[in-house]
């Protein structure tokens, strides 16, 4: 022990021994704890699966039925299916999405594969060790299947759903099957057992395929080009654009009126005039500002959405922007994906807090701010990429500032809407 070499060797030996002991008694010690996640963030129980140093198993699979409804409800359903597979320590087989919106007439649904919308390899790379997607060609025995029937109705509670998942996870006979196949309708309506942060992690891994991303880039570039043309030569800052998810379509107005009656509140529906009034009162908006209206044109009964805005706000929708032909060549799902990306990248976003589309955009924008070091729940006026809910009155007669509560124990407030928007 008198020589330097011996002392160094002894210290290294002690360090290795110390680390080995801690690895035995503390499963997550020594690395990112992606193999020891809590499955159910409730007050009564915590689910976890055994330490698997390779992440989610790639030789056991979960299969789900075709996913329906709108783009963002489908994204939630995909995330819920992936988190269900993760709880069962399985890889989710590539789900089939729906390009059309005929969610009640299953026979009319136009199936479209997940990898036609989102990048498959990129997803697995970003979510490596957390959740995993697989292809049907990965299955070695297509007859080695166990059905998992999803219940429905009021009697099928979250507790019963969770008990069923526990049973399938812990039963060695069921776990021995190569594929567990979920049987039932509307995966979006499954019970939720996971916190907002788990969903947010999955959403971060959903990257649009190049074709759709490039189309979205064309729309954003068109908006920026118009902005540069109206900017004063003495102004060094580019003209910002505000994206407004303008929910005034006839199907939405019917839906939101029913929601207001059922929930006995009056902060869900907003008329065209109310939206224009509140957007015009956002504190700090420059003149001029481009306003992009993300609206389902085919479902509009009022074609005058471009008139009535205050001076200095320059409204554009797809037709006036010159991109309606580009949108029309795609099915509904891809059109929504393009609009989502355009709204996500806006300098300011304004939406409806009871809209899933708006809620998921604000979730991603909140995540973006948190990664930049902004405190969760911070609603300071000078925060970059602010978001607002036009259906809730905020300061100076404008819309209410909006950030997602990332500490939520479930996605219910986001997937079903709420007037509690953190700010």
Automatic annotation (TrEMBL):
Source taxonomy: Eukaryota, Viridiplantae, Streptophyta, Embryophyta, Tracheophyta
Keywords from the named record: Carbohydrate metabolism, Fucose metabolism, Glycosyltransferase, Transferase
Entry's family note: Belongs to the glycosyltransferase GT106 family.
GO biological process terms on file: fucose metabolic process; pollen-pistil interaction
Any one Pfam family match given in the protein's UniProt record, by short name: O-FucT
Molecular function GO labels: glycosyltransferase activity
InterPro entries cross-referenced by the UniProt entry: AtOFT1-like, GDP-Fuc_O-FucTrfase
The protein's name in its UniProt record: O-fucosyltransferase family protein
